[in-house]
């Protein structure tokens, strides 16, 4: 099951929240900054041991001070116009994150709109990739609750529309 929820992902009491990170995995602005602030310094300390992460992939840590038990740090692509494999890299983030969630025994997972902030990926195109990739991954699996988190109303409307398609 996939649902849309509007608000701050750091407040969600789910098994895993996904972070829209960069390849260093050492924090940044946007949702990454919000997650590190809410989790506390233990998260950065754990991230230092991960050795970064490739674009289109993800790595998992504990949730530290967050209500969520785990943080899955996914590195989305920077938007360069769509001709540089951005859609496949973004899909890779969603697939890798769900694979890690499954391996950790998580059935409740929340995603921000990866790459659609600082990285400039158009929100409508990103929502279509997110929904299609998650539907593929969830096909034949039972009991998962995936939340697509919109920080603002415009993103919520875009995600709702992608789910209706
Ligand atoms: N809860 C949910 N969504 C949020 C929150 C929040 N607390 N804060 C922002 N968003 P962005 P990116 C939304 O820029 O484009 C960082 O510096 C935001 O409105 O956070 O993947 C990293 O370190 C937007 O819809 O991530 C990287 O360097 C979405 O989250 C770089 O930014 C993603 O926006 C990654 O850029």
Automatic annotation (TrEMBL):
Name the source organism. Answer: Pseudooceanicola nanhaiensis
Top-rank taxon, per record: Bacteria
- The name this protein carries in UniProt is Macro domain-containing protein
Pfam family of the protein (one): Macro
Signal peptide (UniProt feature, chain positions)? none
Q: Name one GO molecular function term.
A: O-acetyl-ADP-ribose deacetylase activity
| SUPFAM superfamilies (UniProt xref) | Macro domain-like
Per the database record, which ranges form the Macro domain?
A: 1-165
Q: Which NCBIfam families match?
A: PRK00431.1-6
What SMART domains would the database entry show?
A: A1pp
